[in-house]
Design goal:
Number of helices: 16
Strand content: 15-25%
Order of helices and strands: HHHHHHEEHHEEEEHEHEEEEEHEHHHHH
Mean pLDDT: 88
Structural class: alpha+beta
Radius of gyration: 27 Å
Number of strands: 13
Shape: flat
Largest sheet: 6 strands, mixed
Length: about 425
């Protein structure tokens, strides 16, 4: 598979006389195979290269040092990105890229940083308030130095968060952020947003790496990155792409993007499930969709017109219930004295548009393929390949390491596809 890739941009840096190190394709093949068998450390890979016959075959019989392997990986992010594009082009050429079955989602990878290196705006403000209440008049020199160091630590954290326009930072790894992981713990990490195609082939077409704490608001950026990457791979994107996303991408900016760009991309985004009132158990409250909204105002579930609309801030309007004190449905509607209904018209319009899209014939069946398209990608990378933590703090190295794992995944999918077909890899190469 590596023989099919064009690594000319890197190969031109090497001497034909062998004076500039090992062949790039040999190093890439060693890293690809190492990634697939769960060897992600350059030190471990170099050690295993001494005894593993498969790795020795791929390296051309050479023993490559850990430093050489590490430099090749950390310095070639653009090479790996281009190789991913080439793998997508091969998938398209071989009929493995189904643009009607796209899905976007993200996975969180642990960063090379400790939890103690994370700083949050909320925590630093709380600590500064606590420190300001302390009486330092009786402190000795050492105690005062420790006190001032604590104050400076949190003041610097707030300044860094403001400069980066983030709610948290990781002081030892600026590219990381404080993310909440599936086990419920918060730790420094990187968010990797992936778009893949084909419920059976599952070819990754695009990768977006950042440190955001949630998926909300990232749909537009992910799709624009996807379109750019597909064009780079030479894939025809003249017809609308068909992509699905889960309820994590249901922010107003996500749904508005889906509504305004439907000519370029056919997006299906699941909507959050709200708790409804259960008449049998008596639990739950009415949700917004139970209230009737029209040009003449809002009507509560009891059929009573509500007071309003009133301005409730930028992009929001507010309605107030009438006669809530004596309404027999009050316990199902609100726990307060009066029902207050806050509406964001732009968001409701975008949600209505997506509800209509999801109600179209075949939309539900298409959305149900989302899990089979995207989740196995993360399962293979995290569990089969065992890659859950990034091993470097360098910005370019982080991107290179993650892209290398995605490239290894894609090449494994192309290999599997042709192992199941009548066309052998030897026929492809030769």
């Amino acid at each position: 598979m590596v023989e099919l890739l064009d690594l000319g941009a890197v190969e031109n840096k090497y001497s034909a006389l062998g004076r500039r190190g090992f062949a790039p394709k040999s190093q890439l093949a060693v890293w690809i195979y190492g990634s697939l068998i769960g060897v992600h450390s350059s030190n471990r890979l170099a050690t295993q290269l001494k005894t593993d016959a498969a790795l020795q075959f791929l390296s051309g019989g050479h023993l490559i040092s850990s430093g050489t392997l590490r430099r090749f990986r950390n310095q070639n992010a653009e090479l790996f990105a281009d190789a991913i594009s080439q793998s997508v082009a091969l998938a398209e050429q071989w009929g493995l890229l189904d643009l009607d079955e796209g899905a976007v989602d993200s996975v969180r990878l642990r960063a090379h940083a400790s939890t103690s290196s994370a700083r949050t705006v909320k925590r630093s403000k709380q600590r500064l308030e606590q420190l300001q209440t302390q009486d330092t008049s009786a402190y000795g020199r050492d105690e005062l130095d420790r006190y001032n160091a604590k104050v400076k630590k949190h003041e610097d954290a707030l300044a860094a968060c403001a400069e980066a326009e983030r709610t948290n930072i990781v002081v030892t790894n600026p590219s990381a952020g404080l993310l909440k992981f599936p086990n419920g713990a918060a730790a420094p990490g990187h968010r990797v947003t992936v778009t893949a195609f084909g419920a059976s082939k599952r070819i990754v077409a695009s990768v977006l790496i950042d440190a955001d704490g949630a998926d909300q608001g990232k749909l537009g950026g992910a799709i624009e990155q996807l379109q750019e990457d597909l064009k780079k791979a030479g894939v025809d994107v003249s017809r609308p792409l068909r992509v699905t996303a889960d309820a994590g991408y249901s922010a107003m900016s996500d749904l508005t993007y889906a509504m305004e760009n439907q000519e370029a991309v056919d997006l299906l985004v699941a909507q959050p499930k709200y708790t409804r009132y259960n008449p049998k158990s008596g639990k739950g409250l009415f949700t917004k969709d139970v209230f009737k909204l029209g040009e003449d105002g809002a009507t509560c579930p009891a059929g009573t017109p509500m007071q309003g609309p009133e301005n409730d801030g930028p992009g929001r309007i507010r309605y107030r219930g009438v006669g809530c004190e004596v309404c027999p449905m009050k316990t199902q509607c609100t726990k307060s004295k009066q029902k207050v209904l806050v509406i964001r018209p732009a968001l409701e319009e975008a949600r209505s548009h997506m509800h209509a899209r999801m109600a179209q014939p075949g939309a539900k069946e298409r959305y149900n393929k989302r899990i089979a398209t995207i989740e196995p990608v993360f399962s293979m990378i995290e569990h089969t390949m065992g890659y859950r933590r990034v091993g470097t703090r360098d910005d370019e190295g982080i991107r290179a390491e993650i892209l290398l794992k995605v490239l290894a995944y894609n090449l494994s999918r192309l290999t599997s596809a042709y192992q199941d077909s009548s066309l052998t890899l030897l026929q492809i190469v030769f």
